[in-house]
Design goal:
The complex is a heterodimer of chains A (about 300) and B (about 325). Chain A is built from 15 helices and no strands. By secondary structure, chain A is mainly α. Chain A has one domain: Orthogonal Bundle (MetI-like fold), CATH 1.10.3720.10. In chain A, α6 runs parallel beside α10, α6 crosses α14 and α10 runs antiparallel to α13. Chain B has about 325 residues and is mainly α. Chain B has two domains: about 70 residues, no CATH class; about 210 residues, MetI-like (MetI-like fold, Orthogonal Bundle). A two-stranded antiparallel sheet of chain B has the order 1-2. The mean pLDDT of chain B is about 80. The chains are: A mainly alpha (about 300), B mainly alpha (about 325). Chains A and B meet through α7, α8, α13, α14 and α15 of A and α1, α6, α7, α13 and α14 of B.
Chain lengths: ~300, ~325
Amino acid sequence: MTAPSLDALTLPQGGEVRADGGLWRAMSRAFTANRLAVLGIGLIVVIVLFCFLGPLIYHTDQVYTNLAAANLPPSAAHPLGTDYLGYDELGRLMAGGQSSIEVGLAAAVTASAIGVIWGALAGYAGGVLDTVMMRIVDVVLSIPGLFILLFVATIIPPTLGTMIAIIALFAWLIPARLVRGEVLSLRSREYVQAVTVMGGRGPQIMLRHLIPNAVGVIVVQATFQVADAILIFAVLSYLGFGLSAPAASWGEMLSSGTAYLYDGYWWQIYPPGVAILLIVLAFNFVGDALRDALDVRLRQT
Amino acid sequence: MTGYLLRRIGQTVVVLLGVSVIVFALTHLLPGGPARAILGIRATPAAIAAFNHAHGYDRPVSLQYLSYLNSLLHGDLGFSYTQNQSVASLLAQDIPKSAYLSLLALAISIIVGLPLGIAQAVRRNRFLDYAVTTGAFLGYSMPVFWLGLLLITWFAVDLSLLPPEAPQTATLGGALADPAAMVLPVAALAIVSIASFSRFMRSAAIENLAQDYIRTARAKGLAERTILVRHLLRNAMLPIITLIGLSIPTLVAGNLVVEQVFNYPGVGLLFFNAALRRDYPVEIALTLLGSALVVVGNLVADLAYGVADPRVRLA
């Protein structure tokens, strides 16, 4: 590495990220070369279009029940049949997908934001503050997640917002740990020391130099977190602690289909399960590919 | 070693105290407090006040926490109002059954997952590797409860091979006496763990296969089988100790879901029912217990690692 010019130092461009031609370019090159990543992105696009644009083309009533049309097998009028309340399963799959994707994305973003701030603060501050902050993470992390989630879910009335909040409330711990580790290793680098020598202050160093350089790790983790949040939301809904009726979710669809396992109503068991599996798989593929792409970038420098 | 042990035990105690504070605080966030939860929505303010006074809920919160901690330390885990039984006796009844389910599933996932991972590493990028990797990806992207439902649909409903429900029994003996009914719950729990164990073992084995000791073993003409079992497995198994320690929270959570799906009367189902009925003393006790299991499990895993691998010095 050649010595950086004074200009580059006085005008920090978010650290070394852009100086070597691009985290993003190297990552996107490695990313698009990965077939599973492309498959994952494709799946996500298809599912999002299905859930959010589908209802505009395929109109169903997902609010009023119709017991005369309950538990109908697939037919021309109902391609995936109906459930025990007479809701059209295909339309419900779209409505349920909307809540699953919204909760997954929002919870992952919220958790990552909290985790990044917490971890960066702890890693940068060091000393007693670091110890106390990370000990808090240890404490919350040692509570089995599902137990505390069910516990909180019994206290707070379930809405889309509270679902996102309680899932995020217990999902920020891993990003916090990761970012702290990353910040600990970054803060001793020369370019950070250079900024310190030039009088850069804590918040500036953290926001403009440390966090931008940890962004790869954060994005990879956030991708996995979307998958996890969707799974957790499905479990909560399945167990009956999800959104209240008539709101739809994939977990709730499975839970109502369970009552008819012996009647062979396969259309109430397979579609929602496959939908959960596909979206979680897709985000896991993308996360894996991003991690490998980030690895490529790390190997090049 | 003694210093390390003392420090780790000290940390464990601090973490558990922290958990107890969080859980205790949560119960005080309840709308109307425990009185409302127990007496129901139609209770009069006078009845609630009387209940609070009788159970000491009208004292300062800090004092309440201390007396709660005091009774905890005396082994008093609280009283379940909906089951009219002490939490300790409920636990004594259900813990053996849950332990049986979890340990059986854990043992099976180790016995299946580790050889699978090694086989993948040896046949890297061949058909077997791809097939198992695909299976593993599906395994940990699949919600456990859906897997359970599928197993019931296939093996209990369609093929009528196995009972759809776990043994309905109050005692561990009853569960032991009905192995056929345990197959599906154990399978549901094990399949998910096999996915993560084989994946982990695969990367540990690939790393170890590139090491000098394997080359030396090959150079001195050892049979491939001996190399894999005596050299590779023993070395690659070390990180598995840590993995088992780390997978305790997943096992505990998976346990809850699987017990609910198969209606297995263990600790998970106990917690699920307590959550449904807002039986807070049971919820609190089980959350604390689960956390203790996680923390102590991690401590034991770290200590076991030090014993299994003398190169790791615990200081």
